[in-house]
Amino acid sequence: MPSLSKSKIMAYRQCPKRVWIEVHHPELQNESDKSQASLACGYLVGGLARQHYDPQTKGVHIDHIADGFSEKLVQTSNSLTSEQPLFEAALEAENVMIFSDLLLPAQQGNAGGWDMFELKSTTHVKDYHRDEIAIQAYIARQAGLPLNKTVVAHLDKEWIYPGNGDYHGLLVEHDLTDETIARAGEVASWIKAAKETVSQENEPQMKTGSQCETPYKCGFSDYCFRNQQKAIHPIHWLPRPSPSLSSYLEQHGITELRDVPDDLLNKQQKRVKYATLSGTVFFDQQATARALSGFQLPAYFLDFETISFAVPIWAGTRPYQKTPFQFSVHRMLGAGHIEHSEFLDISGNDPAEKLVRSLLAACGKEGPIFVYYQAFEKGRINELAERFPEFSEPLLALNERIVDLLPIAREHYYHPNQHGSWSIKAVLPALCPELSYDDLHGVQDGSMAMDAYLEAIASETSPEQKQQIEQQLLTYCKLDTYAMVRLWSEFSNSKLNLSNKN
User: Rounded to whole angstroms, what are the CA distances from 1 to 24, 69, 96, 402, 408?
Assistant: First the structure.
């Protein structure tokens, strides 16, 4: 029987079929970009932990790439006598192998032993983290390692980076020692069941369902869904399904919108269902015009592009804080005349203060500021006001002027091509078919904008490539605010001077 690992035990916990395929047909797996990004984030946190727990750099790092597992076991065994921090220690028991993120010589009294740490790039302990550390602790103890403590360490989302490479206090520790001891029998049963599963000749028969996405997106979904008939009007187009509705649909195997009982749907979901099945557009233009009638010109249309780092690189920011590096503002004047302002900093330096000054100049002193999903823009402005008290008053005054177009669209407009989404990227081509984000080159959504920004600030990126990325980012963000201009025009039934849209 092949050896198992913590990840394979966790795969069994998610779905027995998944662990069987991982063992017998790993070539069927399709790794997502998100999982690769998670790995990269984990490496960053691992590097931070080495600075924090091994400041004198005397620790031992077991090379888990260069040598086979047997050699890693030998390296670990030899290193356990050193009483130094030990990273990526390899341990094995019951034909299950694990790698511990960090082992520290125990500091409590003279009892000896080791403290085991699982390092997480999240900002809280998740349920599956508890399962993972329980598996790690069980195998370590079965392998004869004297464990003093078992700890999950994660990022403190409220911690503010002071700058100058000082990351003291960023990691928060949760002692789960008692919990891991109490769950030993539970873990033993998982291991036994996982071994029985992978020893079977044929893969387990499992229906697809919520386990395909939780707690991880399964890399074998394409394989498992390959023979399933695709729905013509899939139920995932229903907006905001309640837990009870989702449970009903899964229990009854419903995949088509037409088969969903009306009495389980709210007004908006019914609207989506019948617009989709009939192919008709719902547009209450009188209602949208009334909603916008109280706002006078000049009007502004604002959008930010942001970047977030698990481990902050700019003083005054928190883990995963969304920091704006770009904005676009279209200004609507009388007679449908439009002007445009923008800001973008791809130097790699903290863009915040320059952006604040440019933003205040671009948005003027009065007039509504239209956005699409106000919580995002207001949240960024509040954070900028907190970081720069000298600009707090004018920044918070911007928030008082913000008007959200999203609730108006969600309540009074729906096109079958939106497929249950009211994102501006879904609404714009439906309402204004001559415009589409698909026509953009390089950057077509916020995720791509973040990736492009990271490439632009990388030291190895050539000046020519930086210039190309800069233009792609400017074009993308400009379309975001011009899209709002067009939505405002259609919703308010106002004419635009399209010859001067810039």
Answer: 11, 16, 11, 62, 60
